[in-house]
Amino acid sequence: MKWLVVLGLVTLSECLVRVPLMKVKSMRENLQENGMLKEYLEKYPYSPVKFLSKDQKKNVTYESLSNFLDLAYVGLISIGTPPQKFKVVFDTGSADLWVPSIFCYSESCDKHRRFNPQNSSTFKLPPGNLRTVKLNYGSGDIMGIVVSDTVKIGDLEDISQTFVLSTQEDSVFRFFTEFDGILGLAYPDLGQAGGTPVFDNIWKKGRISENLFAFYLSNGGKGDSMLMLGGVDHSYYSGELRWVPLTKQQYWQVALDSISMNGTIIACHDGCQAILDTGSSVVNGPNACVLNIQNVIHAHQSFNEVIWGLHALKNQMSQPSLPFLQQYVIDCNTTTHLPDIVFVIGGVNYPVPARSYIRKVAFNTCVSTFDSFPDTMFNSNTWILGDVFLRLYFSVYDRANNRVGLASAI
């Protein structure tokens, strides 16, 4: 019996697929360095309230949580036969897979790898009329066509996977992104292109042993960041996994009990919601709540040349600032004495120290990683926990039991 258990563990470990992830410079950082961040934010004011509203209906087209601006971790996949490689963001805030095509003549496509269907023997168009689709993102739309081909992630081969080939990308700013496309890992209901999402396909086809996946986002600890498909490598975390049931099966959404500092609740006083989003590197929350946190940590709004660059400063003089363009600057020395901000989920404290919620950017300046979205249109009390939180906590996304597991990352 003992040997059967050992053999079973070996079999399960062989079914665990590890996909290395690389941390790249985010679009926000690239735009800051080029003095274009203010211009970008004025054109694409990111507002998650569209899809966090309590008034959501089934006939609403939901946008992805991703806004390109803060995507920072990418991994390699290949599409077609022979394989064509792409850098993609594995994103728990969306459900579709898309990459640029050779038919895309937008300026942003020129910088990225583009899929050539003529070079793939396994490429297929769906039967019937050519189907076009528009994927809605906070940073502009992706227009493309729905196709299918073999997708390979690590050692996993997903035959006849539906995905989108972009033919137009409605944002010249995507020139400043370090990834080619996005592979969504949210629930199928969020899919905008139709077809079965990648993760659902590899599970249905029996390519993985467990209906779950996990993320380790490196913070200078164990080493390289990693996506795990079909199992969990327990060496990436310490202590036990704490499981939290989902409150809604679209995004990876859970109940958030409160947000506190030094034992005093500073946000989410009566409970609220939180979405775990690997497609963001910040913590988003309702405007009034985030403003309170900025005040507590002594962060102040700034649009000076240190943050925006001289080019942006010139634009500022002729254009009024909007509430959602705020960058909050903080003294870099405060990381040594500001207390943790504690997120309480399922009765468990998850502290985020100042060294995590304060980020050093260009020109030796530090900014708060708390970001707000306008909350005047809808009564939304939902937070989006991005990499600021997920670098500290190993996260498991359990589709079989509709729950999330969290533990301290190594």
Automatic annotation (TrEMBL):
One of its GO terms (cellular component) is extracellular region. Residues 73-407 form the Peptidase A1 domain. GO terms for biological process: proteolysis. Keywords: Aspartyl protease, Disulfide bond, Hydrolase, Protease, Secreted, Signal, Zymogen. GO terms for molecular function: aspartic-type endopeptidase activity. It is found in: Secreted. The active site is at residues 91, 277. Belongs to the peptidase A1 family. This is Peptidase A1 domain-containing protein. The lineage of its organism: Eukaryota, Metazoa, Chordata, Craniata, Vertebrata.
